[in-house]
Structure formats: C-alpha cells, structure tokens
Amino acid sequence: MARDEYRPEELYTGPIDLPLQQIVDDEAGEADKPEISYDEQRYPARPRRLRPRDVVGGRVRRNTTDPRTANGSNPSYIEWLVRQSMLKDADVLARQLSGQPSMWRNPYARPDARRAIATSDVWFTAYPISLITRPGQSFLSALGAEELWAAFDRVGITAIHTGPVKRAGGIAGWLDTPSVDGHFDRISTAIDPAFGTEDEFRALCDVADSHGGSVIDDIVPGHTGKGADFRLAEMGFKDYPGIYHMVEIQPEDWMLLPDVPDGTDSVNLDAATEAELADRGYIIGALQRVIFYTPGVKETNWSATAPVLGPDGVTRRWVYLHYFKQGQPSINWLDPTFAGMRLVIGDALHSLGELGTSALRLDANGFLGVEVSAGGLPAWSEGHPLSHAANHIIAGMVRKVGGFTFQELNLTMEDIRDTAAVGADLSYDFVGRPGYHHALATGQTEFLRLALTSSLALGVAPVQLVHGLQNHDELTYELVHWATRHADELYRFRGDEISGRDLAEVVRAELTESLTGTADYNRVFTQNGIACTTTSLIAAARGVERLEDITEAEIPAIRDAHLLLCAYNAWQPGVFALSGWDLVGMLTVPATDVRDLIAAGDTRWIERGAHDLLDVAPEATRSAAGMPRGRSLYGSLPAQLSDPDSFASRLSSIIALRREHAIATATQIDIPEVAHAGMLVLVHRLDDGDADSDAATQVTVFNFSAEPTDGTVRSEHLTPGSAVVDVSTGAAIGRVDDLNSFTVSLPGYGAAFLLLEADEQG
To answer: Which of 126, 161, 458, 758 is the most buried (most CB within 10 A)?
Structure first.
C-alpha cells in the first residue's frame, strides 16, 4: 500500500489484548462516569477539535531536568549550544547571500597571485596575545590606531594580518575553556572579547582602507576547537557529527577504549589501540605522520571521548581524528551532510562580508582529505586530491565575493604547486624559509640554492609565495619535500651525491646544533623545528651562548644580518611579510617566564614575547593577555624612525627599492652558481608577468657570511656590454663581459640591488 493510500478503517479491527492494568483502569473509569448531559445526548459527535483544551493548546509541558544540567537531557542546554555553534551561523549567512547579484560579479575559478599582490605586497603579521596596548585598549583598537598606520606608511607596510581573533578553545558544561593552540582552535564566528569587538574590527578595516591598505583574517578549514559544534556532535545531534572525522564505537567494544580520567573529556589512543580499532573496521588507523608527536601526550592522531549522553537518551563514545592537538578535532570534508564544508564557508563569508576583510589565510589546509590505504600502509592523509578539491571550493568562494586567500601548506613543492593551481592565490614560503635560515647559520647558501632551483624546476615560482620572517610558529625544519616524496632521490650536495632523506637529516642536524647547541635561549619544538625569534636565531648563529651576552656592542651585527634576511625576502617576487617581533628586534623570553605554557612541550611560547610597537606602555611587564614582555634590541617604531641608521629606517629603504622597481610582480629567471660559498644571486625580469614585454633585468646579490666577499656573478640571462648599476647609490659598479659575467664586492651580511642598463653604444 502506498503511503498516501493509508486508511485506518482498512486495518485489522478484531479484538485487541490489552495489558491487565489498562483493563482494570478502563473498568474503573466506566463505573465512575456520571450520567451524560443533555448536550452530550443531543450532540454525541461533537468534534474533539472544538473542545477548549484542543483549541487553547493542551497541557503545560514540564521539564523535570535540572536547568543547570549540562548534557543532552536538558533541552535548554542543547538550545544554548546551538545558538553558539558555527554551523548555525553558517546556515544563517548562507541564506542571506544566496541568490544575491553580488555573488556573480567576480571571476573565481583560477588563482591570481599578481592580483592579490597588487592589493597589498608588504604585510605586518600580528599576534593578538603578544601586542602591548595602552591600558584598557583592545588589540583591535590598537591595530586601528592612526599613529600605528602612520608608522606603517613610513616603513612601507600595506596590510595587517590580524592573526586569529575569533573565540577559540572549548566549552565544558556551561563554561568556556582556554585555547590550546594560540587561538587556532576556533569555536565561534564571534570576535573574542579579549581582543575587541566586531565594531573595532570594522573600524580597523576602514582605517586600513584610508591608508590604501587592507586587513587579512584567518580561517581554519582543517579543524575547530571543542566548542558548541563539537559538543553537539558528541551528543549525536542532527548534522553535527558530520562536521568531524568521528566514529561512534558500539558499547560492546567500549572495553577497547582507554578510561577517561575525571576532569578530562578524551584520551589519546596508543598505537596498539589504534591498530585494534582499525582491524575491527572502526577507523583507518595510522596516518602518514604524527604531527606534534609527544610520548604519553600524543602518540597517535586519534582520541577517544568519555561517554556522552545525547538528547535522544542514548549514551555514546566516539573516536575522533585530530592532526594536531587533542583539542583540535579534524573537519570532515566528505560527509553526506557536508556540515564541515558549510561551517568553514560560513566562517569565511562572515570575515569577508560581515567584518570587511580583504583576504584570508587558510591555516593548515593541506590535511582536508584522509583515506584508507591498502597493504597495511599508513592512511593517505597528505597530498590527497580531496584537499585540492576542498581548497578549490574555499578559494573559489572567497574570490567570488572579491577577496583572495593564502595557504600555510608545509608539504612538498608538488603539493604546493598542485594545490595552488586551482586553490589559494598565494602560498606561505616553506620552500626557501628553512634554506635561508640554514644559509645564515652555516654561512653557506648551497642548500638554499638547491631549494630555489628545485622550486623553479617544479613549477613553484616565487611570485606565488609569501616570503616571511618570524611568525607565531617555530622555525620549521621538517623539510617535508626532501624527507618524504623525494627521500630516495639523489642530489648533488657539497661535492657528493646524497639522498633527499639524508639531505634533510644533515640540514636538520646543522640547524639544531647551530641554533640550540650552545645557545640556552632557543628550544627544539617537538619534531617540527626550533622555537626562536629572528634576532635570537642570528645571535645563536653568531655563537652567542646566553641572552645576557647580547650586549649593545653585539646589536649592530645582529641588525645587519636581520636586514640581510629582510632584503632576501623583499627583493624577490611575491609578498614580503614580517612581524612585530621583527620590527622591534625581540629576543626569546626566558623559559622560566613561560614555565606553565611550555610544560606540555609547546616550546614556541618562548618566541612569543609581548612587545610594544609604539612605546604606549613603557612600564608594562606583560600584555593584556598575560604574555611576559621580552627584550627589544631596536626599540619602538617612533624612536627608530627618527634615526636614519635604525633597523626600521633601513628597512623602509629596502621596501622602497622593492616598490620603485615592482620586484613583487616580476619573474624570477635564474639562480646561478656562485663563486663564494656564502653568496646567493637571484636574476629577475621586471615584466609584471608579461614574458613578451621589453623588460629590464634586475640582479640581487647577497652575502650570508659575516665576512666581506668578492665574487663573480655569471648568468646566460645577462646581456654582454650592459652596465651594472647599484640602485641604492645610482653608481655603475661594472659592465657585463663577453662571458655574461661581472664582479661584485659585498660587506659581511651585505646585499646589493642591481639593474642592467643597455650599452648605449651597442
């Protein structure tokens, strides 16, 4: 029988066996009935719907649950969680934008690095909890101060990347819990009151626009924190489990799961339990690597929840995936509900449409696909096609509303190339960043040159990259490109052939020894890299063993090396990014000052010292968020900009040359061999991406050693007879000979921005 043909009178009408108690109750009820009234006799078929109770609305429904109860048995708690959830916000935003003409005004299919760079090419990378503000002033208000933007104008900074400022951390019962990863465990689209308000964010965007600048926000497409969305998912509520890579474990198998101690909500699985659950078909088991591996803390990428009561009365236990920390459950981009995709896109549209940002950073966006592998191999979790597809969707949506994206993708060069082909407009420079640190630490550029030439050969041009100095993360030296996909490939290095795997080991060992061997102020961070600032890296590379040994006499050399690294990042195509720690020359803070923060192994907190860009609170010993103040080698921006020899003033000259000659959108055409181990030469065509243009040739020469050097620059792209002009002085330093070469002299940590001018007599 079809559903719409249902007929109650056609069902079985024979005798029904009622329970004994029901029979007794019915018989008692008949005995107690009064005689029927006149109306009941006259109108025996009066419809029930006309009875007052049915018209007015029925009985009062009472909830016997304690209103303070924070679990699935309390409808008020569920409603409270839903109101805070990112998925709910995403649904509201989607309905507001759907079908609007604004959604069709911009091309979106293909990334456009040069268009993004034209929007803003020099970025200030902020970190909310480390900025010292005026008493009572919020972080966002401080970023929107005219005084700060006036200083940025003089330096040459055109954009602020705010860092994560939305609510993060988790929810336990009715209470918020703190972030476990510097606010990269987002739980809401709302601005965290600790950093300011939405109105202050919008005002910041307005001030930036008035200075010809822009504001860049973050989204985290790979994970959330344990906020309302995760708590609803644990309860099995509606679409919410579809947000995450989480699997419900049947009660008969709970004995496989570890006990969850009181006061915690989950426990990381050990490798044996991970394998057992994989064998039973629950999860896909081990992944290609365990990021942030720490014995006894994080041994696998899976954790088990405590028992959680849902609104349907069912108690569940789950095992969920987290690439990073236990408080960062991973988002599932291929679930039938597409709840995870909806959540992320909603967060992006909120930042662009509601707050007014121009661009978004995609944090950890290389881990959006995960798939079981055959033959007992680890699950496929890096370089997965679903990551490419998901990034295409995110970046396409952002471009569709007029913005652009950049990605933080620490995978192989091929992964960066393939993801960038349809996804983010720009990628963070994990190609050259460990290379230039290694060059400074060793005084030799061979590995840096190998990385840069490999990048060009594989199709990752520098114009696609965000070349950065210090940010909130460690100096990453995983060297994924060499240690994974190219582990068995042979490379020529230091006069011999070496495998990619061994090359990565050599570079890691040399960085570790140089930067942490005798220096007591830098720390290794798990298996990922080294916690340090740019100035503490330079100090260690120069052999300084203790922070107190960095005297006033040592600062000029540190400053010169710092400016060399600025020139390296600024005098090549792409975006140049630097942080407040760079601008004022911050050192790491003593480990004892952040003892509680690094207790679980996250040593990065030593590099995140509080700093005062404008000298607005000289007596402050901490930021408003509680980060201890670190030592600044260069002083505040106003003080530096009044001194032509200061770091900030000389930095402004570096950026001015970058702008004057449009190096940001040029094309890199050669990284030639060098005559001296500490030299690096980059050759560019100043063509704004137009290969057919009659563009000038530009050459940048660097000396990564502390000693002066003379060397020959040779490249087939140098036209014989051309004059070689040092742009900073306007003087010709030589002429390209018939062997396509010229000589150059550089001081220790020196850099030269050179132009070739055609031979007028030729």
So the answer is: 161
